[in-house]
Design brief:
GO terms for molecular function: transmembrane transporter activity. The chain is an all-alpha fold. The protein is built from 17 helices and no strands. It has one domain: MFS general substrate transporter like domains (Growth Hormone, Chain: A, Up-down Bundle), CATH 1.20.1250. Helices cover 74% and strands 0% of the residues. α2 packs antiparallel against α9 and α5 packs antiparallel against α6.
Length: 395
């Protein structure tokens, strides 16, 4: 069972990466919940433009996650990719304050996601190399908890600034401070000891060369992610259901707070049971949440909306860290960076069709159809995952 004293025994690198993620997400989530409002009220762009922006940005990041993961294994280096990735995102995001049309927002989000693509797979490889297999769920859960804590701090800061009368552009510029602190901490990271490939084996990064259980898992993840469009649509739906503009950041802060509190114990639970079972429950819960949110009609009280979105935070807590810990279970140790590259590519590349389809369905058929499509994809992914449900391979 989960015990908090296990957290104290995690190595320094796990704590440092967690603090880096907290600060980076504080900077990112000062901006993230406000982008739909900025597009709609300032730049006069609709859901279809939002879907295009988020889809292209995330798909670009996904391709670079594979490249950086492969290079991590080849060069046995993680730190340069992590430093450059956080720097590019941190200095790019505040430029949204100067965007005069939605294509400029697309360009800035594109640069931000390039940074994410460079850092994510090397960072995941660093985390996996820093702990024993018995603590993978705990380490990735703790990282996600810190990441989500930043997503609590960021919206609260944004809400406070908006409440004091500052414009959206001013909030964007203020995100530069936590970004600078993030960069300073990345320079203190040490290189992990990555497993070296056997000399008699040639290096092969192709999908077909991944272990079969990992390939099956990634195919189930691909179908689930086809219905997992940008979370910005959730905020847009909350606004459509009557939530006030100044309350939108607080709603997302609630989601992140629930995920922060629950990520570490739920992910640590996966160190003692088959991780797929926890993922299966999470994906089914996701489908139910989307079906309910899509079928709601008219204005809804803020209390019910906050309660509903809190359940989404539980879904995030039960799946985000576990998904990544399962990759390390199923991957070959000497190709851990490549395995995370493929995981991040599959999870992110599907966001382009997911966000585009969701935006088009919403704009032409209504939000109910869009949310129903996402729920169907989640259930399909759960079926594929359940068919392969057996004890995860030991690393």
């Amino acid at each position: 069972m989960f015990a908090f004293n296990r957290v104290r025994d995690l190595p320094r690198s796990v704590f440092l990466i967690g603090l880096i993620s907290l600060l980076n997400d504080a900077a990112s989530d000062m901006i993230y919940p406000l982008v739909p409002l900025y597009l709609a009220s300032v730049l006069m762009a609709g859901p279809q433009a939002l879907g295009l922006i988020e889809g292209i940005a995330e798909a670009t990041a996904s391709l670079l996650k594979l490249v950086s993961g492969v290079l991590t294994d080849r060069l046995q280096r993680t730190r340069p990719w992590i430093v450059c990735g956080y720097a590019l995102a941190g200095f790019g995001r505040p430029l949204l304050a100067f965007a005069s049309s939605w294509p400029w927002v697309l360009l800035i989000r594109f640069a931000d996601r390039i940074g994410k693509g460079l850092r994510t797979s090397p960072r995941d490889a660093l985390l996996a190399a820093s702990v024993s297999p018995a603590d993978r769920g705990l380490a990735f859960g703790f990282h996600r908890a810190m990441d989500n804590a930043g997503a609590v701090v960021g919206p609260l800061l944004a809400a406070a600034l908006l409440g004091l009368g500052y414009e959206l552009r001013t909030v964007f510029l203020c995100s530069l401070l936590p970004a600078l602190l993030t960069l300073m901490l990345t320079l203190r990271l040490d290189e992990p000891e990555l497993p070296r490939p056997a000399q008699h084996r040639s290096f092969d990064w192709r999908f077909g060369q991944l272990p079969a259980p990992l390939r099956r898992y990634l195919l189930a993840l691909a179908l689930f992610t086809l219905g997992n469009s940008s979370n910005m649509f959730l905020l847009l739906r909350a606004r459509e259901l009557g939530l006030g503009e100044a309350t939108v950041p607080l709603l997302w802060a609630t989601v992140s707070l629930v995920a922060t509190l629950a990520s570490t114990p739920l992910s640590a639970l996966s160190d003692h049971i088959d991780r797929r079972r926890l993922l299966l429950a999470g994906w089914i819960a996701y489908a139910v949440f989307y079906l309910v949110l899509g079928r709601l009609g008219g204005a809804l009280s803020s209390g019910w909306l906050f309660a509903l979105f809190a359940s989404y935070g539980l879904f995030l807590a039960a799946t985000e860290g576990v998904e990544k810990a399962l990759v390390a279970d199923l991957a070959e140790r000497e190709r851990i960076g490549t395995a995370y590259g493929w995981f991040n590519l599959v999870a992110g590349a599907m966001l382009l069709p997911a966000s585009l389809l969701f935006g088009v369905l919403w704009q032409h058929l209504g939000s109910g159809s869009a949310f129903a499509f996402s729920a169907a994809c989640a259930l399909g992914g759960a079926v594929l995952l359940a068919r392969d449900l057996r004890p995860a391979a030991a690393a």
